[in-house]
Specification:
Strand order of the largest sheet: 2-5-6-7-12-9-10
Number of helices: 22
Helix content: 25-40%
Structural class: alpha+beta
Radius of gyration: 30 Å
CATH architecture of one domain: 2-Layer Sandwich
CATH superfamily of one domain: Histidine kinase-like ATPase, C-terminal domain
Distance between the termini: 70 Å
Oligomer: single chain
CATH class of one domain: Alpha Beta
Largest sheet: 7 strands, antiparallel
Number of strands: 26
Amino acid sequence: MKKHLKQLDLKRIRITDSLFGEYVNKVSEKIIPHQWKILNDQLEDSEPTYCIHNFRIAAGEEKGERKGVVFQDTDLYKWLEAVAYTIAGGRGEHLEELADQVIDLIGKAQEPDGYLNTYFSVNAPAKKWTNLVEGHELYTAGHMIEAAVAYYQATGKEKILNIAKKNADLICRVFGTGKGQKRGYPGHQEIELALVKLYRETGKKIYLQQARYFIQERGRNPNYLQAEIAGRGHPEFFPEFERYDLEYSQAHKPPVEQDEAVGHAVREMYMCSAMADLAGEDADSGLMEACSRIWENMTTRRMYITGGIGSSGFRERFTTDYDLPNSTNYSETCASIGVMMFGQRMAAITGDASYYDYVEKALYNTVIAGINIAGDRYFYVNPLEVVPEFCTEHTYMEHVKPVRQKWFGVACCPPNVGRTLASLGQYIYAEDEEGVYINQFISSTADTEIKESRMKIKMDSTLLQDGKVQLQVQSSGPGILNIRIPWYSEKWECVQNGISIKTQPDKGYQRLCISPGDTRISIDFHVVPRWMGANDQVRADAGKTALMKGPLVYCLEEKENGRFLSEIFVEENTSIEENAPAEELVGNVPTLSYKGIRVRNKGADGENQLYGSVELEKEEVDLYKLTREILTRLSPQAAKRKVHVEVTGEPVEYVGIRQILDEMIYNICENAIKYNKEGGKLTVWVGNTLQGKKICVTDTGIGIPENETDRIFERFYRVDKSHSKETGGTGLGLSIVKHGAMLHGAKIHVDSKLGEGTKIELIF
């Protein structure tokens, strides 16, 4: 099994993007200083974390009781890791002195044998390594090791790396199958992927072997975690573990035998990331196949359109296939970061660009949603729908916060977002022995050496605006540039030095040969807004649609989360207009608008009536005026097909649902243009008759066979399927007309002759 891709050195990448550049700058300017205040309990109106205080007690600099959650130390380690990546990215020189002071403190807190954990060192020294289910010692050690490797790579300073090696050496002595060793493994996975990083940096195979042991031992019988729980008899740190199930921590069977994404979502992603690392290092086909099975199950049955995972607020976990509620879902920010980690590693092993499609979804829709633009407020939970007044104690949405929070009692997500954004470059570029891979379209520069050639890349991306990416490549020798073709680009155009490139992508990458000198590349992915629907088995999404442009899922909002958002409906072939970016947002991201329908039930209106007969909200509508407005909107389509439009009649007042009436008239008239002859005619008359209020639409189009006139109002039915491919549409327009007519008690008359045209009358 060949490992295809490796990360570019972060020191060689600079992010200049209007969107992500803003967030990356915020890491050094706001996020890291803000979180430092929190770690030191210096933030007003925020509960204390005791984090730095705990380390000072463990270091002998202060006295007192160690406080906070048992894994509180990890907040500091992730903060330090973010500092390291910021330094590597050229934005954090001013933080290095402070980081060195923190490392000194960590070193003082470490015990002579290498043990490092403030909770057990201070509060329970006799209980070290006795509660792997809840104690999170190995999880905490993993984050420390990751921070150490990152800081050493950024600065070349060995102190923190030596602390990490000393701690890792202790872990290697304590756990294993040898005499006197514990045959245990972590309740919360993390140490495994950290040990792989430490091995790659130091070359010491004992760390790789230890990571392999933790994965191989997990879930074996007799089950270590099960025995530990039985011996203790009750939870020590987390009362909710009273009825602990092994699936929660993916310990129900050996990882190599697992084929579903189960249990705690973050633990699953960290474990799978380590499994993928080991599969690449050891050419382990069994682990790789298990990773592929879990990935496939997760992305096709247990993932939100936003890249969020872990649908249940109960223990932050996966549930069953297609169980994806929108308002009660958890979708922890850390879990989506885990998706990015897992996807990146799978792409590295397989060379398959499709994994980065999911990395991109998670990044754009959940990870950066987990932090505000200012960089000082956070989401832990990321549902797709929020009703603020339901997010209270003793409700099914208690875990959901309608606004971002300053911090959390268990605050794994805020510093995790910081370290992820600070290391964003690793998700943009990768390389192999032949060339460079572009995996995310984020404006940036990169500089690397491939064999004996030096390649400099400057990427200017307006992906979210117009779907275009410009690349300037300077190379001292020949090389290969591989550009991911994202899932949302149904067609693309690639031009290299003025020449169109039309080769077949290889595993989702457009492969370009780069000659010595300067190369200019233009890519147009033809990114357009689109309506997206869920699999029919996702019951929570029945009758619902999502709006996306490229990787970005858009959110429908009203001021203060308006009370009647749930009453808005849209027909899935409704046209979408792109508007200027909102002034209060960053990144020049366009806003989208469309004409929808708001339907209110007036039969149970007001605060004193809970139920009532169905009575939809109606208003007085001038059908003649409305029809003229609609045909004005359709005039570009008519002009394109050279169809002459004529509107006659008189004002006609009718009490109905404006939005639905609009849809009915629009769809009839649009069809009359679409299926008209080029240079044909469309006449519309609106007036009062003895039969009732009437709208008559007559065209000179293709007509309808006599035996098919009764079927044109069926969902998805098309008279001329070949013609409809040219014109577009779903075949739902006239179906909506039929249902709108039924809602208003209106009649529809159709008179058509094949090859001559069609007349449709709406009579109210």
